[in-house]
Specification:
Layout lengths: L2 H9 L5 H11 L3 H17 L10 H12 L13 H11 L25 E6 L5 E4 L5 E4 L3 E6 L7 E13 L8 E4 L3 E5 L3 E6 L5 E8 L2 E5 L5 E4 L3 E6 L5 E5 L3 H4 L6 E7 H12 L1 E5 L8 E6 L4 H12 L1 E5 L11 E7 L3
Parallel strand pairs: 5-6, 15-18
Antiparallel strand pairs: 1-4, 2-3, 3-5, 4-5, 5-8, 6-7, 7-10, 8-9, 9-12, 10-11, 12-13, 14-16, 17-18
Helix pairs in contact: 1-4, 1-5, 3-5
Length: about 350
């Protein structure tokens, strides 16, 4: 199979899971690969600044790509792929919503006129964040481990999207005549023009909505109860019994991730390790259950994972040991054993 064929499939949104899996595995091997991805993204932006899968001319894009890539020097760090394949993966994978952006058309949704509506699904792997501009100009930031679905063109009455799983921050363009609706497995969030964050990871017992600006209404899928939120409020929805609590809080703490900042306030180390697993695509194996309940309070901005682990070790009398070689079954991830330091 020609490299050009793979590139064309990715550009046109027709890459299959095997293509995506190979690129993702390479990306997760080390931090240096991710850094190189970010550098090479600038090359793609210069040759193809706007990505619209509905309008893209794959032949022209391919031509621009090869013209530009011929001028670049190859990185000596690449071992898993040939030099050319690595550069193709790096340059094309990032702009397609930073690795494993997987586009496909579905005919399950229909517009008010009865015509099929093309849907796009974005899957962002752990260790990566991304963003997408919706057809109405609204912007959505997607945290790692997130799957998000939206139509190529919004319905004439409503702007409806689906957060399948994960976390997303929405900056919605104001349009009172066309409500903006975010559907999750448990609730729906309705807005007209606002900024809010929705945390809906499947492995967490609660779902959180944090409202920065504007107003939103929350609808419980089970009870159909309507909950109105005001700016500065945080909703905690319990998935088990469909109960909820609404309180004021520092909502920025919950969406600082869009700025590359991780904020921990009055949380346990279990919550900290869960967040680090999502952000850095690693696995923590806690040897002493007591560690899970340790309280923690910190803000991390530009620190690497190794620097964060050093701080965790110093402040909590714990050891975070890399045991990846002993756990080959966890492919594509580093594995750390966390245990108490015995005095």
């Amino acid at each position: 199979m020609k490299n050009e064929d793979i590139i064309t499939r990715i550009l046109s949104g027709n890459a299959d899971p095997a293509d995506v899996k190979a690129f993702t595995a390479w990306l997760n091997e080390c931090e240096e690969n991710k850094t190189e991805f970010r550098r090479l993204k600038n090359i793609w932006d210069a040759t193809h600044p706007a990505f619209n899968p509905a309008q893209i001319d794959t032949r022209k894009a391919e031509s621009r790509f090869f013209e530009k890539i011929g001028k670049e020097q190859c990185s000596s760090r690449i071992a898993a792929f040939t030099n050319f394949m690595y550069r193709a993966a790096a340059i094309l994978f990032i702009p397609l919503l930073i690795a494993t952006l997987y586009l496909y058309n579905q005919n399950a949704h229909r517009s008010s006129a009865g015509r099929p509506t093309a849907m796009q699904t974005i899957s962002v792997p752990y260790g990566i964040t991304s963003s997408v501009e919706l057809p109405d100009g609204s912007t959505v930031w997607l945290n790692s481990g997130t799957s998000f679905k939206y139509p190529v063109q919004f319905d004439s009455n409503v702007r409806q999207v689906e957060l399948i799983q994960g976390e997303a921050f929405f900056e919605v363009n104001a349009d009172p005549q066309h409500p903006f609706i975010v559907n999750t497995n448990h609730i729906s969030v309705t807005a007209t023009g606002t900024r809010f964050n929705v945390n809906a990871y499947p492995n967490e017992s609660s779902l959180y909505v944090s409202l920065d600006k504007g107003r939103v209404n929350i609808t419980d899928h089970i009870t159909q109860k309507l909950i109105a939120m005001s700016p500065g409020e945080i909703l905690n929805y319990n998935k088990a019994d469909n109960s909820y609590s609404l309180r004021p809080g520092n909502v920025y703490n919950n969406y600082a991730w869009i700025d590359g900042i991780t904020i921990f306030r009055d949380v346990t180390l279990k919550e900290v390790f869960n967040k680090l697993e999502q952000k850095y695509n690693v696995k923590f194996m806690i040897q002493d259950p007591e560690i899970n309940s340790y309280p923690y309070h910190a803000t991390f901005e530009n620190e690497s994972l190794s620097e964060i682990l050093d701080l965790l070790e110093e402040g909590n009398a714990i050891s975070c040991k890399d045991i990846s070689k002993q756990h080959n079954e966890v492919k594509g991830k580093k594995v750390y054993q966390v245990s108490k330091i015995r005095k």
